[in-house]
Amino acid sequence: MSKDYIATYQAHTNIALIKYWGKRNQDLMLPVTSSLSLTLEAFYSQTQVHFAKDYASDQFILNDQPQSKNEVQKISNFLDRFRQLKATDLKAKVTSYNHVPTAAGLASSASAFAALACACNGALELNLPQKELSIMARFGSGSASRSLFGGFVEWEKGQGDDSQSSFAHPFDEADWDIAMIALIVNQAAKPFSSRQAMQHTIESSPFYALWAEEVASDLKHIKRAIKARDIHQIGQIAEHNAMKMHATMLAANPSFTYFQAESLQAMEAVRQLRKAGLTAYFTMDAGPNVKIICPYSEVPAIQAHLSKAFDPQNIIVSRPGPQPFPIPTFKN
Ligand code: ADP
Ligand code: DP6
Q: Which residues form a coiled coil (predicted)?
């Protein structure tokens, strides 16, 4: 292989309504349960990969900052899977911009590895189908498997240790009256990664076994609610699912939580929205920020209420987002 290989992709984050929290096989990145998410238009990563003989080693620049050895190693391991498929040992420069706070529970790892998987596929001219790319993205971060698609997306847990059986697929286009509002209470990176936190939960939380059972039932019910476009049902199931996930962490030993005082305040604000007759439900991930599921048509009224207690700059409205797509090359 003598020519240079380069491609640039944009992939959007996704927020799970039925959460993925725990792996049954850490090496193969296989989840304990299936999960279901909504891809978001407002938050995304743009990633370029350039494989070339000029590079003596892999490089990774995120938001114009060269990244630590550890971060570069994570990227190298991911690139290795694509290099293997192409039978090449060319090193690469990865340049990425997050249009989402990094490691703050807003799913930067999801858009990141979906964008990188698509860029590698494009650059190396592998022509992998979306399903295969979802599997490849999963190796970077589990939730990234879902960012290969737009709208509502289901990630199937698959069977046993069969890596090929666990991938995401579109569930519903979400081309109806639905939106998500991110209420940013803290943009700082989280003190512990979702990867460490979910493993600690599996190993020490007596509630974990029950969690897996609850997910199976929540998933069945939310799928029906999505098909019926019943946003009250969707919101109730998603809100309860998120709180059950956070309860597994409170019951871990030692216990921990991603809740901050402002997160609790934000959740209470959503309950108040409901008391005021609005349709709004919350979910929360591995970070202090709160996301609100609501009809798009009610966004102005919800914003008006929230703006009384929160800085309008920290209220970010998103419609459902698309699948990844190619964008023009950055200057290297
Ligand atoms: P988040 O809540 O943002 O998904 P995670 O801890 O799950 O937090 O993932 C954050 C990690 O994902 C970062 O520490 C970094 O290793 C990786 N990451 C984030 N953005 C990018 C990117 N654009 N390209 C490659 N890796 C990224
Ligand atoms: C709470 O996908 O970031 O956001 O697979 O270890 O990279 P790794 O974890 P990650 O975990 C996401 C956890 C979550 C729930 C979800 O997105 O389903």
A: none
Q: Is 45 in the pocket of ligand 1 (CB under 6 A)?
A: yes
Residues 106 and 206 in one domain: no
Best probe residue, ligand 1, of 21, 68, 109, 141 (max atoms within 8 Å of C-beta): 109
H or E element at residue 140: helix 130-140
Domain boundary among 153, 174, 195: 174
Whether residue 198 has its Cβ less than 6 Å from ligand 1: no
Ligand 2 site, residue 211, Cβ cutoff 6 A = no
121, with CB counted inside 10 A (0-12, 13-18, 19+), is: buried
**Ligand 1 center to 44 CA (angstroms):** 12
Q: Which residue has the tokens 């998103």?
A: 318
**What's the CATH code of the domain at 278?**
3.30.70.890
Ligand nearest to the Cα of 63, by number = 1
| Domain final residue, candidates 125, 151, 174 | 174
- Six token digits for residue 177: 């009256």
Write the pLDDT tens digit of every residue in 113-139: 999 999 999 999 999 999 999 999 999
Q: Which residues of the chain are modeled with pLDDT < 70?
A: 1-3, 102-105, 190, 332
pTM of the model: 0.97
